[in-house]
Amino acid sequence: MPSIPVVAATDSPAKVVECLEHDGAVVVTGVIDRAVRDAVMRELAPHLEIVDPDASINKKYEADGGTANFYPGKTKRVTALVARSETFRTFVTHPLMLSACDAILKPNCTHYQVHATAALKIGPGAREQVLHREEDPYQFFKVPRPRMILASMWAITDFTEANGGTHIVPGSHLWPADRGARPDEVVAAEMPAGSVLLWMGGTLHGAGANRTDEWRYGVFLSYSLGWLRQEENQYIDVPRDVARTLSKEVRDLVGYRMHLGLGYADVQPKDNRDENR
Length: 277
Description:
The chain has nine helices and ten strands. By secondary structure, the chain is of the alpha+beta class. The strands form two sheets. It has a seven-stranded mixed β-sheet with strand order 1-2-8-5-10-4-3. A three-stranded antiparallel β-sheet has the order 7-6-9, with no helix packed on it. It is globular.
């Protein structure tokens, strides 16, 4: 039976990268403590409280060319986390993530960037999500594609097979396009709160079905090559007036930085005061 390797936050970054390259995913335990999880929940609570878990965002997704019923119902989902949560910004710059991105993404770019963010509360009765790859929007590349994306799910609450722990197909990042996953090859990421699941952009995955009476809470964060169009439009979700309040490291990772000759903008002289932040 396939399985998702599990390592500790105290293990070497090289071990995390080795698991990613071999299995396409890895769980790292003990990454964030209770105080950090509580802070994230507190900061995002006002945004999640107003979300209707039965309201579908699939119509908008389908109108833009997405797959029908891609997002399961009975789920609360909010994005723009860099702008909405100060604590989440520490996830963006976490040494675990940066070391993994350096190894997985940096060989294909000058620097990488935040690709997408989301807080996800999977409610009782939520169905299983269709398996997909983070790199699927880049249809111009043949599967298996070059390494373009590294994704992660931060466990704010415990993840179990029963409450909808993220489904992963270990090794699928190396499969050809015509290779589908058998049911016995799909593994639920079970991990205690405070853990982080990382997976390669080419790894098949999807949210699991929640068969319990509890809500499963996770925070999604992905990175992509600095020359790609980001999945989440960071320049709208993190507009300039908000970006000015961020550290230079976070601002650069969000995408307020040129990638060689890509991404220039007309910067007015009054903005020069921010260049050394």
